[in-house]
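Chapter review: from sequence to fold.
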Amino acid sequence: YREEVHQLTAWCGANNLSLNVDKTKEMVVDFRRVQSGYSPLIINGSSVEISKGKFLGVHLADNLTCSLNTSSITKKAQQRLFFLIKLRKAHLPPSILTMFYNGTIERILSSCNTAWFGNCTVSDRKSIQGI
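The token string follows.
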């Protein structure tokens, strides 16, 4: 695939186009016990290799663990839980509080959970269920 990338950069150069290297990412996932050395992909003198990134709202790490995604989700949900507590102290009716919870907090906790929840560790699941 590296040859294809080099052909693409050559084609872009020939047609007065430029690749946005800041938005181009490469993540290598290798589960072998002894990982072989590999050279990072370089486009126009810049390396595009990353060890973690965000794709379609799910935080991914190169070892495919869910800890990075879980910590991001719990942080975001706890921030919104703070506002729910403030609304409760303002004596809003329970129906409004339920709508706020369903619209903000539950949406975060259930987004893309089929992609990452099955791969979570016990401590990650406890942190999510504690919200």
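Two observations follow directly from the output. The radius of gyration is 21 Å. Residues 52-131 form one domain.
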